[in-house]
Design goal:
Elements lengths: L2 H22 L18 E2 L2 E2 L1 E6 L4 H14 L5 E7 L3 E14 L4 E15 L2 E13 H9 L9 E2 H5 L12 H25 L5
Helix pairs in contact: 2-5
Length: about 200
């Protein structure tokens, strides 16, 4: 029997086992352990809204302090700004740059903008990601550079995640690819906030 084939199978099996172990690890601090997937897109009143409840034995003030620290130093978005931030809630508008495909000839990318809202209660924190919109790279960057108001096409979260409305001749299953990249980012944010609530911040 080919020893190289055996080693390859063992390597793949080990990787799969490690990945499964990490996915099943309970993460202290919040109840949403299973990442959101393309088959579990939550729709509320016709809009895609991701909601997560974190439970941590901390005061409202401490929860706010830890989240605020993460949003300022760990989130690392393309751009963002606070609409409100106090011991009761934090509301931020975030834009992330998502790259689905990139080579020397072309880049398939989108800008995803969303509201990130956190409500604080003693011992509990509720995260909501809503008002999700997508805009093509070219349109978004043209809008940024323009001195006047332009009407550029954008897609809602439901249009991309659920209805799969975005398509292009050059990219097969474009909406699915955007969904995959967007969910990876959303799940990353959810996990990171959970970890930030478990770590003491000295400010």
């Amino acid at each position: 029997m080919n020893i190289h084939f055996i080693m390859k199978v063992l390597k793949q099996t080990t990787r799969a086992g490690i990945l499964l172990f990490l996915m099943l690890l309970p993460i202290k601090g919040f109840t949403q352990v299973t990442p959101f997937t393309a088959d579990s897109i939550p729709v509320v009143n016709g809009e895609v809204v991701f909601t997560v409840d974190y439970e941590q034995d901390l005061t409202k003030h401490e929860l706010h302090k830890r989240v605020f620290h993460y949003l300022n130093s760990g989130l690392n978005p393309y751009s963002g700004g606070f609409l409100a931030s106090n011991n009761d809630s934090t509301v931020a508008v975030i834009t992330d740059y998502l790259v689905m495909k990139s080579n020397v000839l072309s880049v398939f990318a989108m800008y995803m903008t969303y509201h990130l809202t956190l409500h604080y209660m003693d011992g509990k924190c509720k995260l909501t990601i809503s008002n999700i919109t997508f805009m093509e790279k070219g349109y978004f960057e043209t809008l940024e550079k323009s001195d006047r108001e332009l009407n550029m096409p954008e897609y809602s979260g439901k249009a991309i995640f659920v209805d799969k409305e975005y398509s292009t001749l050059t990219i097969r299953r474009a909406s699915e690819k955007i969904t995959e990249e967007a969910l990876e980012r959303i799940n990353e944010v959810i996990q990171s906030i959970g970890h930030s609530l478990s770590e003491e911040v000295n400010v």
